[in-house]
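Per your request, structure below.
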């Protein structure tokens, strides 16, 4: 229930992680446009700015995937990355300190993410791009309007 508190931000991050894992880190233009159509079906206008952030998110997830794909449980790790990243961004509202970063990494490790110097760097990219997506005005206004609509229905 708490997962949907900010609309579909969580779904976007999870959709991106699943896409990278299902594509095994390799995709073509057709797969990219299908990915964008999937985001569009969630109700988002996938304009140039949104496409840019989504592309950066996929590339960051791909770097992690390429580095850790040989480890057992990569599917579980990719799901954990999506869930923990979305949850962390939602809880912190896109602002954290070093101890928050360390907590994020600890949670990632508990979910099966491999933590080497290289993968930590890639997880940092995933987190930063996710934050930018979270703060994107088009996404923020959609989440706010969904939250307002939900509150009016509950009233």
């Amino acid at each position: 229930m708490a997962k949907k508190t900010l609309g579909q931000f969580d779904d976007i991050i999870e959709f991106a992680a699943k896409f990278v894992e299902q594509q095994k880190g390799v995709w073509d233009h057709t797969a990219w446009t299908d990915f964008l159509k999937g985001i569009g079906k969630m109700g988002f206008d996938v304009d140039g700015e949104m496409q840019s952030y989504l592309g950066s998110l996929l590339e960051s997830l791909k770097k992690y995937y390429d580095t850790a794909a040989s480890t057992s449980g990569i599917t579980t790790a990719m799901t954990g990355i999506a869930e923990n990243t979305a949850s962390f961004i939602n809880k912190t509202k896109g602002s954290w300190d070093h101890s928050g970063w360390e907590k994020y990494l600890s949670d990632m490790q508990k979910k099966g993410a491999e933590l080497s110097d290289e993968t930590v760097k890639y997880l940092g990219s995933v987190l930063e791009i996710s934050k930018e997506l979270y703060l994107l005005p088009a996404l923020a206004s959609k989440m706010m309007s969904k939250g307002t609509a939900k509150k009016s229905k509950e009233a």
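The chain has seven helices and no strands.

Regards,
D.
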